[in-house]
Design goal:
The complex is a heterodimer of chains A (about 500) and B (about 500). Chain A has about 500 residues and is of the alpha+beta class. In chain A, about 40% of the residues lie in helices and about 20% in strands. The longest helix of chain A has 20 residues, at about 235-255. Chain A starts with 10 loop residues before the first strand and ends with a helix. Chain B is of the alpha/beta class and about 500 residues long. Chain B folds into two domains: about 5-265 and about 405-485, Amidase signature (AS) enzymes; about 310-385, no CATH class. Chain B has helices at about 10-15, 25-35, 50-65, 105-110, 165-170, 190-195, 230-240, 255-260, 280-295, 310-330, 345-355, 360-375, 380-400, 425-430, 440-445, 470-485; strands at about 45, 75-80, 115-120, 145-150, 150, 175-180, 195-200, 220-225, 270, 300-305, 405-410, 445-455, 460-465. In chain B, helix 4 links the parallel strand 2 and strand 3. Chain B is globular and about 65 Å long. Chain B starts with 8 loop residues before the first helix and ends in an 11-residue tail after the last helix. The chains are: A alpha+beta (about 500), B alpha/beta (about 500). Chains A and B meet through loops of A and helix 10 and helix 11 of B.
């Protein structure tokens, strides 16, 4: 909170520079087969109301029973956020009426959440890293969905999502720009995916953000915040913050003041608009759910889950830097997805880590992006890419040929060694063969030979001609040495 | 009325086993009694066909020597228990013609053990009431009548509530026993008012799964029957662990019937001085003293004890119970099942449906509950009430830690009153009926009401025994001692039939 203000992050208003202060509440759907308090399936895409148990529909006399897997997932997530795990937490009822809320209350955790304070290390594109405080994580039920477009005078309700487990992850107001906010959500999503506790699929609504935005003059106390509800893509999070910050700045600079309220972001119109004011805010009448005992477990349970956690992105990144000699940036790119990191490690194992990183990041990722594929769908396996790198390392092919080889393996598949053999792509290191080509070029271009004696940089032209004559297979080092000797260039 | 109706549940069980009569005969006798007793309005729904079908199965089982613990015994079911394919109302209009697709844990246990269902019993709406005058299906009339100077009054008497239908049906010999529920006294008070035995077991002894909720942290199912033994038999079937209710105890069910013959020799019975409330009728005090004498005579040590937080129990109860109820009843919104009163928008639908569906007392409690949970009042009401609850629990723990095995109190501060007599009274006066019973729910303890005598008007009075958590066995033993000493209550002649 008291970090020095970075002038680059300030927003220019008409009169002053402004600092934007952002805190986020992320709703992450817990990866689990069944719902938080019922045995109904959580599968996405079922027909409306197919995945609804008696409990989810709030039939009379039905009672919630906590799903142990959802508890384990919340604890794993807490551990991944380096957070305090609370051995005793309490489920509360948040009471309000809505057609997609069958019980008339949402079971949530209000005063005593399962996870307390933690932190997330966020790398920014400019290489800076910030630590974002996590205030808490709690478990709660998702609501159903109202369908307003099915009949002219009626709304329909789909309860498939009703009761699905969500983790609400609340950050401290530690973010100072839309870039930071986007990087935070991206990093949080990476951690959740590593842990396997949330698939992070924002298109399916598995990850939604409520964004709290306020602005202030640098050094001033916090301004009045507005909460932008249910933003469902990282790009929209950035846009919503920019839009909202500028709206607030304009109001304040016009002599007005911000009223605390809940707002919605309309990406189509590029504006936020008021949903309800503080006065209209619900009185949720929270109280401990008497149907559920406090949730209690011991430290051994937590330790057991901790022991089963995968290596997380920060640790993996540090290891890639230390073990493979990668730059922090490259390591960061590689660990952003667990599958990319795994792919990279398979390529790099027993090879030059930097070369492997270059090939994975530049060639493979570049090509995957172009084709709109993810790493799981890569036509080139880690084994194949490793073989290509091996062929370069052994001097069998040049870097340039290797790119052609990559293309062939990408589109046609096959063992790179066999492809090189079959297509005669091997690098020519036989100086006799290279010499023949060099001699021929020198003989055919006496004028260029004369010029080269005056201007040694013309060597490049000769190298190019030689490579062309050898179909690119000549060993570039051998070509250079021969040409220098024959042209008399030092 | 047939002689079969005069049997206790245990006698009927033994008669069936001995093939003295068939389950069909027993069931038919009870169906006939139910039909003749409609003046009592004890049943919301009679299910004679189902009863006879179950009885046939029972006769087959008995014939095959495969009789189960409650084989062929006709029971009434409080209409708060969801019954598969049988309309369940909670005595409210809001449930409309709701037919559950599931069977409550407690009733499922009864059918597992071979019991026969005669129908669904009337109650106060959502179990909110102490006289069975809040039912959307009309008042239940007690089979008892006042008798002054040998003249029987025609005035209709309440059976108590909320399990008024259960108590009236059992007292009128319409069924051998009935399920009931108790949130603040709803088993024990009607049992005391009707000269029957009712036990509210320890919170968590019976599963709440499938029972329409009133106040989740207080609700507990239990039986009402005509003898202590019958209650012990029924509770043995109703109780048991259930993973679907996380507040249900994972404990084996003891042999309650065996416990009734244990006696009280060597037990210490506490008499809490705080239950000597101001204005308590002298005959209640006399009855209480009499109860203590009976237990002493049977070998128990009687000791005065103090439960200092008793006087806070009723106000705290009337915060906690409505708070939970206001939330539990939010699901009756006209959207998915039950009554729906259409309106132009969703808020209108909620308002019209709930205004039409809930009766006055239920609406009152929803409003009280909503108020005490609302921002700015929560700490002052709900949080303080929960603190009081902890103190009440500690009072009991201290008494038990000090060697007390069970506590004896009156069950109610008076005998039953007439229907409509409390109509103009402050609601709080009605709530005072629960003054001796709510502490037990607040502390989650078992409590049994057992008939002990008649008052000056010839109406029954009951004593209450309060036990240690999950020690219903001691309560059955002590209650049996009182029943033995007081003699079985002579139930009213069937003026209604």
């Amino acid at each position: 909170m008291n970090a020095p203000v970075n002038p680059k992050k300030l927003i220019k208003g008409g009169l002053h520079d402004w600092e934007v202060v952002i805190g986020m509440e992320i709703h992450a759907q817990v990866t689990s087969r069944s719902k938080l308090f019922s045995g109904a399936s959580t599968a996405f895409g079922a027909e409306p109301n197919d995945n609804v148990s008696l409990v989810d529909a709030a039939m009379p006399g039905m009672l919630p029973v906590i799903n142990a897997e959802c508890v384990a997932q919340a604890v794993r997530t807490g551990l991944g956020l380096k957070a305090q795990i609370n051995l005793r937490s309490v489920f509360d009822r948040k009471n309000y009426f809505y057609p997609d809320l069958p019980q008339g209350y949402q079971i949530s955790q209000y005063k005593d959440p399962i996870v307390g304070a933690g932190e997330v290390l966020v790398d920014l594109p400019d290489g800076e890293a910030i630590t974002v405080g996590i205030e808490r994580l709690h478990l709660e039920q998702d609501a159903g969905k109202s369908l307003h477009d099915q009949a002219p005078n009626l709304s329909f309700v789909d309860l498939n999502r009703s009761g699905v487990a969500l983790m609400e992850i609340v950050s401290r107001p530690d973010l100072r720009s839309s870039e930071e906010a986007k990087a935070y959500v991206t990093k949080l999503r990476t951690i959740l995916r590593y842990l396997g506790t949330c698939d992070g699929d924002m298109e399916k609504g598995s990850l939604r953000a409520d964004v709290n935005v306020s602005v202030r003059r640098p050094g001033d106390p916090l301004g009045t915040r507005c909460e932008i509800k249910n933003v469902n893509s990282i790009r929209f999070i950035g846009q919503a913050i920019e839009t909202e910050a500028r709206r607030q700045i304009a109001i304040i600079e016009d002599g007005g003041s911000i009223s605390q309220e809940t707002r919605l972001f309309d990406p189509g119109k590029g504006e936020t608009r008021s949903m309800r004011s503080k006065e209209e805010a619900h009185d949720y009448r929270y109280f401990p759910d008497p149907d559920l005992l406090p949730l209690e477990f011991d430290q051994a349970y937590v330790d057991g889950l901790a022991a089963g956690l995968p290596e997380l992105p920060d640790a993996k990144k540090a290891r890639f830097v230390a073990d493979f000699g990668l730059s922090a940036y490259d390591a960061g790119v590689l660990v952003a997805e667990r599958s990319s990191a795994d792919y990279y490690e398979a390529v790099a194992r027993g090879r030059d880590g930097k070369a492997a990183a270059n090939w994975v990041i530049n060639e493979l990722f570049g090509r995957l992006n172009k084709e709109g594929l993810n790493i799981e769908a890569s036509p080139v396996s880690a084994g194949q890419l490793g073989s290509i790198i091996d062929l370069i390392g052994a001097g069998t092919i040049s870097g340039k040929i290797a790119k052609d080889l990559f293309e062939i393996v990408w589109s046609e598949g096959g063992d790179p060694h066999a492809v090189v053999e079959a297509r005669g792509m091997k690098q020519v290191t036989d100086t006799g063969a290279i010499e023949t080509a060099v001699d021929q070029i020198i003989a055919q271009n006496p004028d260029k030979v004369a010029q080269a004696k005056e201007k040694p940089t013309l060597l490049g032209w000769f190298v190019g001609q030689t490579m062309k004559a050898t179909g690119g297979k000549a060993n570039p080092a051998a070509v250079n040495a021969l040409l220098k000797a024959k042209l008399g260039i030092e | 009325m047939s002689e079969l109706n005069e049997l206790t549940l245990a006698e009927a069980r033994d008669g069936l086993r001995a093939r003295t009569f068939s389950a069909r005969e027993l069931t038919q006798a009870h169906i006939a009694a139910v039909e003749k007793a409609r003046a009592l309005n004890a049943f919301i729904l009679e299910t004679p066909e189902r009863a006879l079908a179950q009885a046939e199965v029972s006769d087959a089982k008995i014939a095959a020597g495969e009789g189960r613990p409650l084989e062929g015994l006709p029971l009434g079911i409080k209409d708060l228990f969801c019954t598969h394919g049988v309309t369940t109302t909670a005595a409210s209009k809001i449930l409309g013609g709701f037919e559950p697709h599931y069977e409550s844990a407690v009733t499922a246990n009864l059918w597992r053990d071979g019991a026969v269902m005669l129908g669904k019993l009337n109650l106060d709406e959502f179990a909110m009431g102490s006289s069975n005058e809040t039912s959307a299906f009309g008042d239940v009339v007690s089979p008892w009548r006042r008798q002054v100077d040998g003249v029987v009054s025609e005035a209709r008497i309440v059976p108590g509530g909320s399990s008024g239908g259960s108590a009236a049906a059992v007292a009128a010999r319409l069924c051998l026993g009935a399920t009931a529920t108790d949130t603040g006294g709803s088993i024990r008070q009607p049992a005391a008012f009707t000269g029957t035995v009712g036990i509210k077991p320890t919170y968590g002894r019976c599963s709440r799964w499938g029972t329409v909720a009133f106040a989740s942290s207080l609700d507990q199912a239990g039986p009402i029957a005509r003898t202590v033994r019958d209650c012990a038999i029924l509770l043995g079937s109703m109780a048991g662990p259930d993973a679907r209710d996380t507040t249900c105890a994972d404990l084996p069910v003891p042999d309650f019937e065996a416990a009734i013959s244990r006696g009280v020799k060597g037990l210490t019975i506490g008499i809490p001085k705080e239950y000597r409330v101001e204005g308590m009728p002298a005959e209640i005090q006399r009855l209480w003293d009499q109860g203590a004498d009976w237990l002493r005579a049977a070998g128990a040590t009687i000791r005065e004890i103090s439960l200092p937080n008793t006087r806070h129990a009723l106000p705290a109860y009337y915060i906690v119970a409505p708070a939970e109820a206001s939330s539990n009843l939010a699901r009756y919104d006209g959207v998915r099942y039950g009554l729906r009163v259409p309106a132009g928008d969703i808020v209108g639908l909620y308002e019209k449906t709930r205004a039409a569906g809930f009766g006055r007392e239920v609406r009152r409690r929803i409003m009280i509950g909503t108020y005490v949970l609302s921002a700015g009042y929560y700490d002052a009401y709900y949080v303080r009430a929960q603190k009081i609850r902890t103190l009440i629990k500690r009072d009991f723990e201290a008494a038990y830690a000090d060697g007390v095995d069970a506590i004896l109190t009156p069950a109610t501060p008076s005998s039953a009153f007439g229907i409509g007599e409390m109509a103009s009274a402050d609601p709080v006066e009605m709530y005072l009926n629960d003054v001796f019973t709510v502490t037990v729910n607040m502390a989650g303890l078992p409590g049994i009401a057992v008939p002990a005598g008649l008052d000056g008007q010839g109406l029954p009075l009951g004593l209450q025994l309060i036990g240690r958590p999950f020690d219903e066995e001691t309560l059955f033993a002590a209650a049996q001692t009182i029943e033995d000493a007081a003699g079985r209550m002579t139930l009213p002649k069937p003026w209604w039939a």
